[in-house]
Design brief:
By secondary structure, the chain is an alpha/beta fold. It has one domain: 3-Layer(aba) Sandwich (Rossmann fold), CATH 3.40.50.300. About 35% of the residues lie in helices and about 20% in strands. It contains eleven helices and twelve strands. The protein has a six-stranded mixed beta sheet, sandwiched between helices. The protein has a four-stranded antiparallel beta sheet with strand order 4-3-6-7. Strands 1-2 form a two-stranded antiparallel ribbon. α4 packs parallel to α6. The longest helix has 18 residues. The radius of gyration is 20 Å and the shape is globular. The N and C termini lie close together (about 5 Å). The relative contact order is 0.17. The structure holds adenosine-5'-triphosphate and magnesium ion.
Length: about 325
């Protein structure tokens, strides 16, 4: 495969490793007690419209860069009575301060990859998953990451504020007093545009508000890594772009590593992602800036018509894209 800046996954992994192998990134502490509660300026909150009065009470974590190499996942298929590879030797990296989209046709392995990275379900995997250049320690990683699944359920009878208070009591325990917890909650609800809905019971929320509440509940203890499986499914264009814009804000303003799977986003939403990671046939066919996908596909003979949405085009032609890459290798 041709090695350009944003290409198929093995090359981009190598260039990433070279630029990050000097150990400049923050060390990944395997000691959970090393988390500090920062009462000063909250990192990443300066300069934007978002005030950080509440967030300052939350635990702070180092920025997290996640890498995986040669990741393979197989299951035993009862129907065919043989092993089936759901992910085949894929490489990649997802970085702090960035919002990354995992894309690809249905069945490509997007949810499987999220599950593996978040540490859900899949046990028999091969390959490496590293957190800030050290092997992932699942006990620590669980505390520093949150996974918002596609069908996350909310208790329909709680109001937004009650649901948030419950999450704060469960996740923050006695570390903060009631007033501090309310400050944190107000901050998060403001950030996610849910302040006006705080006294509404969740069954009456709109689809977009429900998704945002699912995200808000997971932000309560300030996780540095957030995985989301299809956060825009079921939302209209406006709510989808609000949701993705908000996730982008979270990544950029607070330095979090935000990774979500998404199906054929609109052109506007596609351009909000810092990076895209495209899967086809259980393999990664592209990783890099979304803006480079069209020139990259053109290089290998797939020309996107001017009027096409690059997200639709790359997903729609991904199998051809995959076949060409296989032949080139
Ligand atoms: N335990 C299993 N046994 C057999 N096949 C499985 C198993 N789990 C997942 N699969 C298959 O693996 C493939 C990848 O599934 P996955 O849910 O990751 O796809 P996806 O890219 O998230 O698709 P979608 O966009 O439809 O959500 C699918 O073809 C699915 O049927
Ligand atoms: Mg899926």
């Amino acid at each position: 495969m041709d090695s350009t800046t944003d290409t198929g996954c093995s090359d981009s992994y190598n260039s990433y490793s070279k630029s990050h192998s000097s150990g400049t990134s923050l060390n990944y502490s395997s000691d959970i007690n090393a988390i500090s509660v920062d009462l000063g300026d909250h990192n990443g909150c300066h300069g934007d419209n978002v005030s950080c009065n509440g967030l300052k009470y939350l635990p702070t974590w180092p920025a997290i860069n996640l890498e995986f190499r040669d990741l393979t996942y197989e299951v035993y298929d009862l129907h065919t009575k043989s092993r089936k590879q759901l992910l085949r030797s894929i490489n990649g990296q997802f970085r702090a301060h960035e919002l990354t989209a995992i894309m690809g046709p249905s069945g490509a392995g997007k949810t499987t990859l999220l599950n593996l990275l978040a540490g859900y379900g899949a046990k028999k995997t091969s390959g490496e998953i590293n957190v800030n250049n050290s092997p992932r320690n699942m006990k620590v990683f669980r505390k520093m990451s949150r996974y918002i699944m596609q069908n996350d359920v909310l208790d329909p009878h709680f109001t937004v504020l009650e649901a948030m208070l419950l999450a704060a009591h469960l996740k923050l325990g006695n570390e903060l007093n009631h007033k501090q917890k309310l400050d944190v909650i107000n901050e998060i609800l403001g950030m996610l545009g849910l302040t006006k809905a705080q006294n509404t019971i969740t069954m009456r929320l709109s689809g977009g508000e429900k998704k945002r509440l699912c995200i808000a509940l997971e932000l309560v203890n300030n996780p540095p890594v957030i995985f989301l499986d299809e956060p825009t499914t079921g939302l209209d264009d406006l709510s989808s772009s609000q949701c993705i814009s908000l996730l982008r804000g979270i990544a950029h303003r607070t330095g979090r590593t935000v990774i979500c799977s998404i199906h054929t986003p609109s052109a506007k939403v596609f351009h909000m992602f810092d990076k895209v990671y495209i899967l086809a046939e259980s393999q990664c066919i592209y990783q890099g800036a979304g803006a480079n996908i069209v020139p990259y596909m053109k290089q290998i003979g797939l020309t996107c018509p001017r009027t096409y949405n690059p997200a639709d085009f790359s997903e729609y032609r991904s199998l051809e894209f995959y076949d060409i890459l296989v032949k080139l290798n």
